[in-house]
Amino acid sequence: MRFEASDTGAMEAFGRDLGAVLQAGDVVVLTGPLGAGKTTLTRGIGAGLGIRGPVQSPTFVLARTHPSLVGGAPLVHVDAYRLGSAALLEDLDLDFDRSVVVVEWGAGLVEDVTDSWLEIVIERPTGASAVVARAADADGDGARDGDGDLDAALDADEPRVVTATGYGPRWAATPYAARA
Ligand SMILES: Nc1ncnc2c1ncn2[C@@H]1O[C@H](COP(=O)(O)OP(=O)(O)OP(=O)(O)O)[C@@H](O)[C@H]1O
Ligand SMILES: [Mg+2]
Question: Which chain regions cross the lipid bilayer (predicted)?
Fold first, then answer.
């Protein structure tokens, strides 16, 4: 399943819709470059699940558990950026069966801990480098301004291409199923 999230709100809305169908035992893997929108999507998933926020970039903790406010499964939000190996993911001893687990940078790690997962790849078609170049020359005269607000430019709404592919029995009969 592939679509374009035109802005931050569209990404959160996709997450909310997805969160509404996720259940305990589900694992979602988010892949995409820095600032792609992985945490933004996780925030939407959290809203769809009805968990207690706020969902933030797990900078100092590798995994954060958000309890449900509606009697459903908690959201376990993992940042595997510094984790690097499936063994370390296993060491976190997460309660996969009873939680919805979302792993940023989890590609290639979750295969060892679950037989089914939903992989979501987020791409910035415009490319971060193009955004950086534009930020450096905000007035567009071809010369570097030196006062471009890089952070604002990186955060500004721009489309993302989102591809969601489900692997394993959990996703087989869903629109996300990977085509054999
Ligand atoms: N179409 C879009 N979809 C999602 N986020 C967008 C979009 N357009 C702009 N943004 C902005 O891009 C930023 C994405 O940041 P976010 O923290 O979600 O990325 P990330 O992939 O988690 O980064 P990191 O790798 O650092 O964890 C946010 O500031 C968000 O508002
Ligand atoms: Mg993030």
Answer: none
